[in-house]
Amino acid sequence: MKTKFLLIGPCLALFLFIGCNSNESKNDGSTAAISKEEIINSSKIDASIEDVTNIAEDQFNAQQNTDKKPSGIVKNFLPSCAVITTVLTNNTWTRTVDFGVEGCTLENGNTVKGKMVITFSNDFTASTQTISYTFEGFYHNGKELQGSKSIVRTIKTTDLLAAAHPVSTAAIDMKVTFDDGSVYTRKGTLIKEMTAGYDTWFNWEDNVFVVTGSGTTTFPNGDTFSAEITTPLEFKALCKKPFATKGIVSVTKNEVSAVIDYGNGDCDTLVTITKDGVTEEVDLKK
Prior knowledge:
A hairpin with a 5-residue loop joins strand 7 and strand 8. Strands 1, 2, 3, 4, 5, 6, 7, 8, 9, 10, 11, 12, 13 and 14 form a 14-stranded antiparallel beta sheet that branches. The protein is mainly beta. It is globular and about 55 Å long. The protein has helices spanning 10-14, 36-64; strands at residues 83-89, 92-98, 104-105, 111-121, 128-140, 143-156, 165-177, 183-196, 208-218, 224-236, 246-253, 256-264, 270-275, 278-283.
């Protein structure tokens, strides 16, 4: 039942915002230096959004390709502990993915529990489809996710790729609550083009895509950050990591900015952060 998904993972790379607690501000009103802890904390939120997006697109493709015969070995994205219920009502599919109260571990090592409810039209011949999803008691690595998201998926040619391929526009409006009660909100728009793997729906591991977009994040202390992908982010499904392999994101708060560089395409979790002329390497998985 489970087939290839179209990663929208960019939503996480785009929203790798850097926050400072109100008690970290200097007396002169300037912003405190960016810390590794802040970057890593933000990356945890990004990883959550990346994974739930992948789950939603995986379920769309599973239903779309139910009656197709694969030309190779089928590689499932979801673990066997996930229970999927499928209902067709008034030409709309609803697929509920239940990871249980004990939870399941995804292939990238992240844990999820609770339910995701994914809906989309039964008209798979349409050139444009909208995939929507919501949460029911859903947790990702101990963080509760609330809110909704829609993904508008179109098959078309672009300047990037002459062959018709999936192009997805994701609208994000989500609240993430950490286990200590701190609350973050994410809003924004991301555009993703799938540049490889779209013909092999049964094998998600060969997916490659690039992402552009912008958005804002509000931190627990009320600080609001804006972010823009200035060099398209590239994601490789084979890396099995919820982080871009290359690309650049610019983050700004009150005229103070930082630049996040995801590297040269290697499958690692390292980024460099440049602020005030100083560059520091950070491991997002620490």
